[in-house]
Amino acid sequence: MENISTVLTREHRSCDNLIAAAEEAVEKHQWDEADSLFSDFVASMEHHLGKEEEVLFPALEQKMGAGMGPVQVMLKEHEDMRRLFGEIREDIAQQQAEHCLGLSDALLMLMQQHNLKEESILYPMADQILAGEKDEVMAQFIARSGES
After folding, report:
1. What is the CATH architecture assignment of 4-145?
2. Looking at residue 30, what DSSP letter applies?
3. Among 9, 19, 139, 146, which one has the highest count of C-beta atoms within 10 angstroms of its own C-beta?
4. Does the pTM of the predicted model rise above 0.85?
């Protein structure tokens, strides 16, 4: 079975590809396609963020104590991303390409910084700290995904 880092990092790459495709559709003023791709991106991100917020972070906090600094930082960044999701969705609906692409750049920068922290610090820490609970955590991920 894969480890926590591998699964969640793979999801980061998938979300990166979706936002890039949505951004390309906006650049081409293909608004229906942009809307569809951005909706897919948001759904994938919400699924990923849900795994972290409802499975990973509580498991880490149970081991390390509630209010753990890195988790709180990640949660704040999740809020920031969700705010940008709404603003970008609005720009796509209003066909505001220039503003939308500016917001998308801000989102991409936030995601890159966020993902780097998770992939280089939080996920490896989770693999270590939750080694004894890995099978349970992975089973919860799979249950949330409907994957096998």
Report:
1. Up-down Bundle (1.20)
2. -
3. 19
4. yes
